[in-house]
Specification:
The structure holds two protein chains of two kinds.
Chain A lengths: L1 H20 L1 H12 E6 L6 E2 L5 E13 L7 H12 L3 H9 L6 E8 H10 L4 E10 L7 H4 L11 H5 L1 H4 L4 E6 L13 E3 L6 E4 L3 H18 L3 E8 L5 E7 L12 H8 L2 H4 L9 H10 L8 E4 L2 E4 L2 E4 L7 E4 H7 L2 H22 L26 H8 L8 H12 L3 E2 L5 E5 L5 E4 L5 E2 L3 H16 L14 E11 L2 E15 L6 E8 L8 H4 L1 H15 L12 E3 L8 H11 L2 E5 L5 E5 L5 E3 L3 E6 L1
Parallel strand pairs in A: 2-8, 23-26
Antiparallel strand pairs in A: 1-6, 2-3, 3-4, 3-5, 6-7, 8-16, 9-10, 9-21, 11-14, 12-13, 15-18, 16-17, 19-20, 20-21, 22-25, 24-26
Chain B lengths: L1 H10 L3 H30 L4 H22 L4 H4 L1 H14 L6 E4 L2 E6 L4 E3 H19 L7 H20 L3 H18 L3 H21 L2 H10 L10 H13 L24 H34 L3 H25 L17 H19 L12
Antiparallel strand pairs in B: 1-2, 2-3
Classes of the chains: A alpha+beta, B mainly alpha.
Chain lengths: 615, 378
């Protein structure tokens, strides 16, 4: 009896511990299993363009399920679903006949109207769930800029990824009392903690300008059968990226999630994360630095015999017959490599690098985007004279397209470098501003140097290799670029990156445009021929759209007839063209012209660029 | 005079015991309903499924209790071999396919037209009757090993049959019952030590033979290590008890009964009592058991012959042992075994047998004229 009493006392002690002392912990853990918390997905934020147009928002989509055993009229259900969802009716009937399957997902991502229509039909055995999905009113625009979200609506890359913490909002949840198998209890009252919608991004992108850029890259890729074509339009006064387009691409409404290689390749924003050798467009910075540092003045003359000997190495000018004696302005207009080698050598590494770093080369621009590249600028200490000369005309250096256009903007806008950016501010649904872009602008050039640069670059378009970017009645400045591509450290024969960077209006620049055509598969690989025309077209559209009035009188166009040059010597041909007032590019290394573009007898506007092909 | 005595017999009964047991059985019906209504609705489409079965069990149990209470318990001496024989037959029938019912991997039940009976529940009672009768007749031999051998043989053979089902918990129960009765019967301490050796040896052998027992043992030491497997049931029991706190969540308000706590209406009904009625409820229920055991011991003390004394002691010990083991399991104090809580857990066999044994207690009380000094367990 005593032992029994003792046992009962011990058990009471144990119960006392469980029910009185450990009860907080136990009941808290127990509560976790008593309630199912279903997430209430927060509505993901919207991305707006600078005019309040929706670039991306979220829409409700339906997922349609069927539980075959609950279907009473199989034929009617199959008919209704197949016609509304565009599915094969016989296949659907077959699916519905499989009673061994408890639930079939008929279709995901069904738009709201179709989904609601089907739901209102009240078909037996058909169930719906409503999810949120991203909605892209502009389809394939800005593919690489926006990035994408995964199946759980989390931003993976692009702006969706970079600003995910703002866009995603805070999920709410509902607490439902259930039994162990998840069945809701009869007397349950579900508690709701509402979701907080994600904040909205107000970007500087202008979908109108974006549409011009998209059209340009599509047309350029097609025309030149290029590997890719890309374009950036930058607001030079603010650093806002107005447009950024690249092709090949994919439609955001149909992201190739099943083809990872394609997805990775096409979603990559090469304009920010990849580098290329800029070639002649880089001469802008050599010139600006030289002027600002006082290493050159209007009277300085340069002589180009067609090459320069640097440290015993012979570096060719693109015009192998030479440009002769030139002032700076002529040198820029002619894009004479010798002039820029001289400028770089005159400044010396230290001074030149100071400016290059001010222009943002060798460091990230700080754009609001993941995985930005810093570009490749040789270590200052290991720069040899030969390297310095090459950097002067845009070789032995690699930059991101965004770095280049941001630097150009600083050169032409009066000398202020603005951090390039997509998003100006972020607001929540209540109108609170959660984030505002702060521009760490810095002066890199004086007003005077900037003004000089504008004039020099305007002449490139009005008289030089940038002619095809010209828009009648407007003043446009710019610079062409043609760079050979390197593969495994060696020059890849026949592979070029053709580019043009322009700005307008030249007197008071508002926009800069960089057009890059990668590997145009044509003998006409020059930036002046391949890229410049598209920059001109986009500027023209921007002028119309922005209501920027022409400032110049439209001159009567003068035309000349293309002379017969086939089989003639290069010198003779060049002189003939110059006499007619035509600019030219030479494709090939030979001394004899084999064909021309345009062909003989065709009308060419005076000052336009023609192509000479040599043996 | 004899007739008047008989009449007096009919009037005599222990009201405290009768009221306590009746109250506990009725309380059990309510708790079975509360703990099983959801489970019954889900599995059988009838929330009263288990409660109806329990009510039938209670009616049969009360009938058995009444009948046995008016019959002179000495009749059991006559029928001791019959009862023992029935016990063995039932224990063996369990293994015959078609008759025995396998559930949760064990053959413990015999199929009858209206309900299933658990053979070992009846065997426990059979053992008590046999042991009490034997010890009463041979009380002089009890201090020799040869004298206690028949009791040991019957107990051991029953244990072997029960463990083959397998049913570890009732085996342990029978072993403890056997020790308790032999102790009261006057067996020597050294014989206990001698008996304890094979029992202690048996434990590791069983663990090796059926490794799931070891897992269960580990689970009892730290159930949180395997919250979805071995530890699951114990954790769910803790959740129930812990949620109950001092006063409980209120009758019928258990949350753990919503399929979280397995066997909430049977082996783990005490968890639901703890959840709905709190620590106070548990104390009250345990108090009722203490009262029942106390009355049973009192009846044993006051019985006028050895048979009545041993019989009552055996019944008291059975109730005490089984109650203790059940509550110890539910509170995670010993490794989990499937043993019903006497009078309360759902299960007709158990309920009827316990009611019947209380009937025997009442009979012993009724037919005892003078108290006989009797050894009582400490």
């Amino acid at each position: 009896m005593i032992s029994i009493t003792f046992l009962f006392c011990a058990l009471l002690g144990r119960l006392c511990y469980l029910q009185l002392f450990a009860s907080d912990m136990l009941s808290a853990r127990a509560a976790e299993q008593w309630y199912r918390d279903l997430p209430l997905k927060a509505k993901r934020g919207t991305i707006y363009d600078c005019n309040g147009n929706i670039i991306v928002d979220s829409k409700d989509v339906f997922t349609v399920y069927v539980r075959p055993r609950a279907v009473t009229d199989r034929a009617a259900v199959a008919k209704a679903l197949s016609s509304a969802l565009n599915l094969d009716e016989t296949k659907l009937v077959e699916k519905l006949s499989r009673s061994s399957v408890s639930e079939i997902t008929v279709k995901k991502g069904v738009d709201f109207e179709t989904g609601s229509y089907l739901r209102d039909l009240g078909l037996d055995g058909v169930y719906f769930s409503v999810d949120s999905a991203r909605n892209y009113p502009y389809g394939k625009y800005l593919t690489q800029v926006l990035g994408y979200t995964n199946a759980d609506n989390e931003g993976q890359n692009g702006l969706e990824g970079y600003y995910d913490k703002f866009l995603k909002g805070v999920d709410g949840f509902s607490l439902t009392a259930t039994d162990n198998s998840g069945v809701e209890l009869e007397n349950n009252t579900t508690k709701y903690i509402p979701a907080v919608a994600g904040a909205d991004l107000n970007s500087g992108i202008d979908v109108e300008i974006q549409s011009f850029a998209e059209a340009a890259v599509d047309a350029a890729k097609l025309e030149w059968n290029a590997l890719s074509a890309s374009m950036i339009v930058l607001n030079v006064k603010t650093g806002e990226i107005s447009a950024m387009a690249k092709t090949p691409s994919y439609d955001l409404a149909d992201i190739p999630r099943n083809d990872v290689n394609m997805l990775n390749a096409y979603s990559k924003n090469t304009m920010i994360v990849d580098v290329y050798e800029p070639g002649s467009t880089f001469k802008i910075f050599t010139t600006a630095a030289a002027i600002e540092s006082g290493s050159v003045n209007d009277e300085s003359t340069f002589f180009c015999p067609g090459y320069r000997m640097v440290d015993g190495q012979r570096i060719k000018c693109w015009r192998t017959i030479g440009h002769g004696s030139q002032h700076l302005a002529e040198g820029v207009k002619n894009s004479c490599n010798c002039v820029f080698m001289d400028l770089a050598l005159r400044m010396g590494t230290e001074k030149f690098y100071d400016y290059l770093e001010k222009f943002g080369f060798g460091s990230k621009t700080g754009v609001d985007f993941f995985s930005e590249s810093s570009g490749l600028l040789m270590n200052e200490k290991s720069v040899k004279t030969v390297d310095l000369a090459r950097i002067g005309f845009g070789q032995a250096v690699a930059v991101t397209p965004l770095q280049l256009i941001s630097g150009v903007a600083a050169v032409v806008n009066g000398g202020i470098y603005h951090t390039p950016h997509f998003v100006n501010n972020i607001t929540d649904g209540m109108g609170n501003v959660l984030y505002t872009f702060s521009d760490e602008n810095r002066r890199v050039l004086s007003e005077g140097t900037s003004e000089k640069m504008r004039a020099l670059l305007e002449a490139v378009v009005s008289e030089g290799s940038g002619k095809k970017a010209a828009v009648e009645g407007y003043r446009i400045g710019g610079k062409t670029g043609t760079a050979q591509k390197y593969e495994n450290g060696a020059i890849a024969q026949g592979k070029y990156v053709s580019s043009f960077v322009g700005f307008a209006p030249a007197a008071d620049p508002q926009y800069a445009i960089l057009m890059i055509v990668d590997e145009p598969s044509s003998y006409a690989y020059y930036g002046s021929i391949v890229a410049a025309p598209y920059v001109g077209q986009v500027f023209k559209k921007i002028f119309d759209y922005k209501g920027i009035a022409p400032t110049e009188e439209i001159k009567e166009k003068e035309y000349v007839e293309m002379p017969f040059l086939d089989g003639k010597g290069l010198n003779e041909s060049v002189n003939a063209l110059e006499a007619l007032g035509l600019n030219y590019e030479i494709a090939g290394e030979g001394e004899k012209v084999i064909s021309t573009l345009p062909l003989v007898g065709e009308k060419v506007e005076k000052g336009d660029i023609v192509l000479l092909r040599t043996e | 005079m004899k007739r008047a005595d008989d009449k007096q017999h009919y009037l005599r009964f222990d009201p405290v015991l009768a009221v306590s047991v009746t109250g506990l059985v009725l309380f059990g019906i309510i708790m079975v309903y509360s703990a099983s209504s959801y489970n019954a609705e889900v599995n059988y489409g009838n929330e009263y499924y288990y409660m109806y079965k329990q009510i039938i069990g209670a009616i049969l149990g009360f009938s058995a209790m009444f009948v046995l209470s008016v019959i002179d318990y000495h009749i059991l001496i006559k029928f001791r071999y019959v009862i023992l024989g029935i016990s063995y037959v039932l224990l063996i029938l369990v293994f015959i396919p078609g008759v025995g019912v396998e559930n949760y991997g064990a053959k413990r039940w015999i199929n009858l037209p209206f309900f299933t009976i658990q053979a070992s529940e009846i065997a426990k009672f059979g053992f008590i009757v046999f042991a009490a009768a034997y010890m009463a007749k041979n009380h002089k031999k009890m201090n020799t090993f040869l004298g206690i051998l028949p009791v040991l043989a019957v107990g051991a053979s029953m244990c072997v049959l029960i463990i083959l089902e397998p049913n570890m918990s009732i085996t342990m129960c029978v072993i403890m019952l056997m020790f308790a009765m032999l102790f009261v019967g006057g067996a020597r301490i050294k014989h206990f030590v001698l008996m304890a050796v094979p029992v202690l040896l048996l434990v590791p052998v069983l663990i090796v033979l059926e490794p799931y027992r070891l897992d269960r043992l580990m689970a009892f030491l730290n159930p949180w290590e395997s919250p979805l497997e071995e530890g699951y049931q114990l954790i769910q029991s803790f959740y129930a008890l812990g949620s109950g706190r001092l006063f409980g969540v209120g009758l019928f308000n258990s949350r753990q009964k919503y399929l979280f706590l397995p066997f909430s209406e049977s082996d783990f009904i005490f968890s639901v009592i703890g959840e709905e009625l709190g620590f106070f409820g548990c104390v009250a229920v345990i108090a009722v058991y203490v009262v029942i055991i106390w009355r049973a011991v009192r009846i044993a003390k006051n019985s006028n012959d050895r048979f009545g004394c041993y019989l009552s002691t055996g019944i008291a010990a059975l109730i005490a042992v089984q109650t203790c083991i059940n509550i110890a399991v539910v509170s995670g104090s010993i490794p989990p075994t499937g043993l019903p809580l006497p009078f309360v857990s759902a299960g007709s066999s158990s309920l009827i047998v316990f009611c019947a044994s209380v009937g025997v207690l009442l009979s012993v009380e009724r037919f005892s004229h003078k108290s006989v000094k009797c050894l009582i367990g400490k």
